[in-house]
Amino acid sequence: MVPILGLLRGDTSADRVVPPTGFTARLTVFTAAAMAFLAVFALALSLATARLADRWGTALAQGATIRISAPAEQRAAQTEAVLRILRETPGVASARALGEDEQRALLAPWFGPDLPVETLPIPQLVEVVEDGRGFDAQGVRLRLRAEAPGAVLDDHSRWRRPLVRAADRLNLLGLGALTLIVLTMAAMITLAAGAALAANRQVMAVLRLVGARDTYIARAFVRRFTLRAGLGAAVGTALSMGAVAALPRMDAAGSFLTGLGFSGAGWLLPLLIPPLAALIAFWATRYAAMKALKEIP
Predict the structure, then answer these.
(1) Which residues pair with 130 in a beta bridge?
(2) What is the pLDDT of residues 270-291, one digit of tens each?
(3) Most buried by CB count within 10 Å: which residue of 90, 178, 220, 262?
(4) Closest CA to 195 of 165, 174, 221
């Protein structure tokens, strides 16, 4: 970043070497703006999936369910035995048997709200909430097998692992997309700088003849393309942050995709994109300029 700041404060007279208008100017600004716009969404996706993985892992890890499948005449006794076992188990914060209305609500998405729960052989469910320490699931299973044979403990591990794994892979996908966007931006700016250098090849040769040093000639291109990329990225970042802010909140719509966005200090992360774009343009243009100057006899 220090070379960029020094470049921006440097001599601006060399800027006349680079045409102030033309397709290279528009291409650089448009590319930087488009890539910054996409980069903000890729960053939002990565952060959202990281939060999702943490939320899924925490929520499922702190809860468990016990399913009691017993004859009707034994169900109440086994339910009471299960609750007693859980009250005596270290690491269990609370445990309660779900009522008929709650079980009906759980089954409503599949069977409708009018399901006659009381007339069907539906297992009794017991909700278990862990404290920070957690409980010994294997020990609870052994006690249930001895004192409540119809009870089965589900600690959600078989559901938790695939969900967290899927969220982690989405996080990697977002980071991969962000990396691809950065590489694409560098390639496009290098191509645009190469086109501008090729168009001004004769001017560069004349400047050499009159004594201009290669660093002076390169500085004009580097400065102009760095400013263009920074400006384009700033515009693209601002537009993308506005679009992300306009998305509905997850608590309003209840969907993962509506939770795509930033929270708290995360809103500061997109502000790093314009300086990053300027840094990419600086080194990409510098590489292209020095390579072009070496090819001029």
Answers:
(1) 92
(2) 999 999 999 988 988 888 888 8
(3) 220
(4) 221
Looking at 121-260, list the stretches that DSSP marks H as alpha helix, in order from N- to C-terminal side.
137-147, 157-199, 201-209, 214-246, 250-253
Cβ distance 128 to 86 under 8 Å?
Answer: yes
Find the mean pLDDT for residues 180-200: 84
Buried b (16+ CB within 10 A) or exposed e, 225-263: bbbbbbbbbbbbbbebbeebeeeeebeeeeeeeebbbbe
CB distance 251 to 238 below 8 Å: no
Instruction: Provide the CA 276 distance to its chain's centre, in angstroms.
Output: 18
Q: Is it the case that residue 256 has pLDDT exceeding 60?
A: no
Q: Are 113 and 51 in contact (CB under 8 A)?
A: no
Contact assessment for residue 122 and residue 184, using Cβ atoms and an 8 Å cutoff:
no
User: In sequence order, what are the residues at sequence separation of 6 or more whose Cβ sits closer than 8 angstroms to the Cβ of residue 236?
Assistant: 32, 33, 34, 35, 36, 37, 40, 273
Rounded to whole angstroms, how far apart are CA atoms 255 and 52?
11
Sequence-distant (≥ 6) Cβ neighbours of residue 196 within 8 angstroms: 18, 19, 22, 24, 221, 225
160, pLDDT greater than 90: no
Confidence (pLDDT) at 252: 44
DSSP 122: P
CA-CA distance, 79 to 68, in Å (whole number)?
7
Domains in the chain: boundaries: 2-57+161-294, 70-149
Q: Which tens digit of pLDDT belongs to each residue from 26-59?
A: 888 898 999 999 999 888 888 887 777 777 666 5
Nearest C-alpha neighbor of 169 from the set 49, 265, 57: 49
pLDDT for 52 equals 74
Report yes or no: 292 and 39 within 8 Å, Cβ to Cβ: no
Task: Give dist(CA 217, CA 190) in Å, integer.
Answer: 17
Structure tokens at 61: 């890890």
